[in-house]
Amino acid sequence: MVESVVSARGLNLVFETGDGPVQALSDVNLEIGSGEFVSFIGPSGCGKTTFLRVVADLEQPTGGAVTVNGMSPEAARKARAYGYVFQAAGLYPWRTIGGNVALPLEIMGYSRAERAERVARVLELVELGGFAGKFPWQLSGGMQQRASIARALAFDADILLMDEPFGALDEIVRDRLNEELLALWARTGKTTLFVTHSIPEAVYLSTKIVVMSPRPGRIRDVIDSPLPKERPLEIRDTPEFIAVAHRVREGLRAGHD
């Protein structure tokens, strides 16, 4: 039995707006096991990011329950159970790459020596060894996103939350980062929740794909990937990959019917 790291049961979330209530999530039930790579895919406004924000204790549900590592999202946040990677790298331009990665460690009170050791280790993990002294403007967009991932990994959280981290990058860079992220996941074993609008990206990266419907956000399908853990980019041309992509596409299409 795989340990459940994130559990949602009957999850609802309604935003109160000037134009009246907006239901972002409706009766979401989901179990995510330890070490899984789970992608969330669906149309804009379907609640993908909202679900991540509930897990991260950035939004409060109006119904149902969510647990993270067996505790409330608030307790998990205080226990530093997750790292969060946003679509924009969000690096401070006046800080070096090493200084940006070290920032959460500084806030948490790690010693200078431990900060230096952790920064060096995670920069090597994301293939940015030797770039600690550079500033963000000296790095490409893809390298900046890798630095953002390193920052989320620096304090060794069990869970990695990623909200369309490669959405603004061109296809060639995105393919390369997909390969690197898959290799990083294989090395670290982090439970990863990943939001994307890309069907090929979701199928390539994931052990499980959650297909969501238009607002109010409901889970339309949960697909356990049959693909092997080792996945060269060429796997996207195989019948197995195409079959999973077809099922995702059908789920998205059904959500609009």
From TrEMBL:
Q: Where is the ABC transporter domain?
A: 8-235
Where is the signal peptide, in residue numbers?
none
Return the Pfam families for the record. ABC_tran
- Alphabetical list of SMART domains matching this protein: AAA
Keyword annotations from UniProtKB, A to Z: ATP-binding, Nucleotide-binding, Transport
Q: Does the keyword Transport apply?
A: yes
* Gene Ontology MF, one: ATP binding
Record InterPro entries: AAA+_ATPase, ABC_transporter-like_ATP-bd, ABC_transporter-like_CS, ABC_transporter_ATP-bind, P-loop_NTPase
Transport: is it a keyword of this entry? yes
Protein family (similarity comment) = Belongs to the ABC transporter superfamily.
What PANTHER family does its record include?
Answer: ALIPHATIC SULFONATES IMPORT ATP-BINDING PROTEIN SSUB, TAURINE IMPORT ATP-BINDING PROTEIN-RELATED
Protein name in UniProt? ATP-binding cassette domain-containing protein
Organism of derivation: Algicella marina
